[in-house]
Amino acid sequence: MPNFKAVIFDFGGVFTTSPVQNFAVFERENDLPERFIGGIIKTNINENAWAKFERAEIDFDTFDQAFAEETRAAGFEIRGRTLVGLLSLTFNHNMIDALSRVKSHGLKTGCITNNLPKLGSDEMLAKDENREVLELIHKNFDHMIESAKAGVRKPEPRIYEMMCEALSVAPANCIFLDDLGVNLKPAREMGMTTIKVPFGDVSPAIKELDMLLQRN
Question: Which NCBIfam families does this one have (predicted)?
């Protein structure tokens, strides 16, 4: 077993519900193929409109138009503004408790999140969620990297390297949790132990994390 020194978390889809769940509802309501939006986001994954927006390389109006063009070419136009409007998330409180347990084990903690310029975690929460909870989560991170501020995003390998450098840990001594397999792959290739957080039910990931901490 590796000697774990840090646990690194994604934010959306881990501490909150996943935007992918909201995308699925939109797709059903509009008679779109399953995972239509995800397919657009994963096509040309590092250079499409979504990727450029998450790195703050384009502004909101440019993203709105560019995403509309990409989706129109795939058969159904979705404005970028419509997509951003689907980012209404609620907390996964069990994962918040798991973060506290990581801290109690004395491990370093980090968060790598792909976010949007001028749209932080607070703006992505559902209206009835307690914003103070968000502050408590952030206080438990030793370091946080936001794509829109760093100019680099998952799954680009550099963002994982930046986190390891900030925490002064080797990848082999890290656990990384994310809800998207595409984001786990580069971390795993670097030597991190990865945990996929399932959509809708984070408990299997928490159980796996707790088992690793108990063996550490």
Answer: HAD-1A3-hyp (TIGR02247), HAD-SF-IA-v3 (TIGR01509)
Mean pLDDT of the region 53-71: 97
Q: Which CATH architecture has domain 19-85?
A: Orthogonal Bundle (1.10)
Beta strands (DSSP E) in 131-216 are: 143-146, 174-178, 193-196
> Tokens representing 14?
């881990």
Q: Give every CB contact of residue 44 below 8 A, 6+ residues apart in sequence.
A: 51
DSSP code per residue over 13-45: TTTB--HHHHHHHHHHHTTPPTTHHHHHHHTTT
Pick the more confident residue, 165 or 119: 165
Confidence of residue 125 (pLDDT cuts 50, 70, 90): confident
Instruction: Specify whether the CB–CB gap between 27 and 37 falls below 8 A.
Output: yes
For range 150-163, the mean pLDDT: 98
| C-alpha to C-alpha distance for 71 and 79, rounded to whole angstroms | 8
- Location of each CATH 3.40.50.1000 domain in the chain: 6-17+89-215
CA torsion sign for 127, 145, 57, 79 is: negative
Contact 113, 38 (CB under 8 A): no
CA-CA distances (angstroms) from residue 112 to 28, 62, 138, 162?
Answer: 30, 25, 12, 10
Does residue 109 sit in helix, strand or coil?
Answer: strand
Between 204 and 216, residue with greater pLDDT = 204
